[in-house]
Backbone:
């Protein structure tokens, strides 16, 4: 089995965010860090070169695969802000919140927004909280 390339690093989260050229994305990234810190009561950590994660976890899948990862996190990608909040593991109230969120896209575990001004911040906080407190899919 291939070794996971994305691992926790000692790199500075603030330095990483400060290098983001787009001012809106930079400000939004600091705002998301603040939201996630408040919800998780944890400090952010860089994972690889572009992911900011909170609350380290050790995942063990039914297949026997194991890896170290983070409970929730995000990445300020060029195209959008990608939030890793485990949407696929949260309860049915998530769909109601997503309808109230504003402009976004989703995948199984991720939420994609272009900029925070496109979404309802209170709803976003509720989604992050729901993802953080959802029953995990791993052991």
Residues:
């Amino acid at each position: 089995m291939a070794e996971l390339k994305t691992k926790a690093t000692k790199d500075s989260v603030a330095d990483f965010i400060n290098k983001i050229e787009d001012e809106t994305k930079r400000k939004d990234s600091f705002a998301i860090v603040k939201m996630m810190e408040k919800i998780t009561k944890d400090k952010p950590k860089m994972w690889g070169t572009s992911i900011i994660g909170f609350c380290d976890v050790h995942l063990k899948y039914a297949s026997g695969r194991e890896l170290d990862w983070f409970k929730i996190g995000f990445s300020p990608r060029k195209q959008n802000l990608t939030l890793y909040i485990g949407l696929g593991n949260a309860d049915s109230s998530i769909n109601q919140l997503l309808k109230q969120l504003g402009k976004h896209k989703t995948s199984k575990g991720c939420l994609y927004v272009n900029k925070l001004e496109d979404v309802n911040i209170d709803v976003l906080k509720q989604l992050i909280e729901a993802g953080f407190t959802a029953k995990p899919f791993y052991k």
Notes: Helices lie at 13-18, 23-40, 93-101, 121-133. Residues 120 and 134 are 21 Å apart (CA to CA).
